[in-house]
Specification:
It is a single chain. The chain has 265 residues and is mainly alpha-helical. It is 69% helix and 4% strand. The chain folds into two domains: 2-101, Orthogonal Bundle (Arc Repressor Mutant, subunit A), CATH 1.10.10; 106-243, Four Helix Bundle (Hemerythrin (Met), subunit A) (Up-down Bundle), CATH 1.20.120. It contains eleven helices and three strands; from the N terminus they run H-H-H-E-H-H-E-E-H-H-H-H-H-H. A three-stranded antiparallel sheet has the order 1-3-2. Strand 2 (91-94) and strand 3 (98-101) form a beta hairpin. The chain is globular, with a radius of gyration of 20 Å. The two termini are 21 Å apart.
């Protein structure tokens, strides 16, 4: 992604340009990136990936010039990406001090989980009330992908499928304000959730919980679907507590379950 981003940045600064004869595929892909998404959005996507993967340490300062050099872009797109990441809850901007990767305490994560439990209960009810055969098939297909990833022990694949499943449920609830609020909450919680999924047996348990949610939705059982989602969120909170000592913050490299962070200064 990073090499592609650098190529896209060069392509954007030079117009559409002509792909390099030696690497035409890469040049064409870069042009497609520029045409389909803005450079700040691509920078935001890469920084978001690095934060959620633990490559950028929680609490670390992000230097605009250093990030621009790392990603091979100018400082303008980085500045815009920082603002977008602040809105999504992944960084904080401190006046006259700079930009920092967000830190979330266990106490704050508890509050987010509690709020998510309320929102997800509502989402489950709404989706079950409006479910169609097409929606049921789509959700079952998503759960099947999660089950396959769980069977392989593929945490990354499960993590992405899990995020997509819940985001899709909130989309199906049909409330744009709820979706925006939910996505910010999920971004903040994602700083914890990879470690939670790394617990032995967690993937299989989580997959079963998702299967139950879908079965209730497909059957049009609104109250049961809402309750299943709420219980899933609260169970996720309990799993989070088993991975983190009280008062701890988001992974910053001190945990064996988290990848070594990269500090951009």
């Amino acid at each position: 992604m990073r090499n592609m981003l650098k190529t896209a940045a060069k392509t954007a600064s030079a117009g559409t340009g002509t792909p390099s004869p030696a690497r035409p595929g890469r040049g064409a892909a870069a042009i497609a990136l520029v045409q389909s998404a803005s450079l700040p959005a691509l920078v935001q996507e890469e920084l978001e990936r690095m934060i959620l993967a633990g490559e950028l340490a929680a609490g670390s300062k992000l230097n605009e010039a250093a990030v621009a050099e790392l990603l091979g872009v100018s400082r303008g797109p980085v500045r815009e990406a920082f603002r977008a990441l602040e809105e999504s809850g992944l960084v904080r901007l401190e006046k006259n001090r700079g930009v920092y990767v967000r830190e979330v305490s266990v106490a704050e994560a508890d509050e987010i989980y509690e709020l998510r439990a309320v929102l997800d209960e509502h989402v489950g009810r709404r989706v079950a009330q409006a479910v169609t055969p097409e929606i049921a098939r789509e959700l079952k297909s998503r759960v099947e992908r999660m089950e396959k990833a769980a069977a392989k022990g593929d945490i990354d694949a499960y993590y992405q499928a899990n995020l997509g499943f819940h985001d899709r449920l909130v989309e199906l609830a049909g409330n744009h304000k709820l979706l925006a609020t939910y996505r910010r909450l999920v971004n903040e919680l994602n700083l914890f959730r990879r470690m939670t999924l790394a617990q032995v047996g967690t993937l299989q348990v989580s997959a079963r919980e998702h299967r139950q949610i879908v079965e209730c939705i497909a059957a049009g059982q609104a109250a049961a679907a809402g309750r299943a989602l709420q219980e899933h969120v609260l169970a996720s909170r309990e799993r989070m507590h088993r991975t983190r000592p009280s008062g701890a913050t988001t992974p910053g490299g001190e945990s064996k379950a988290a990848p070594s962070p990269r500090k951009v200064r």
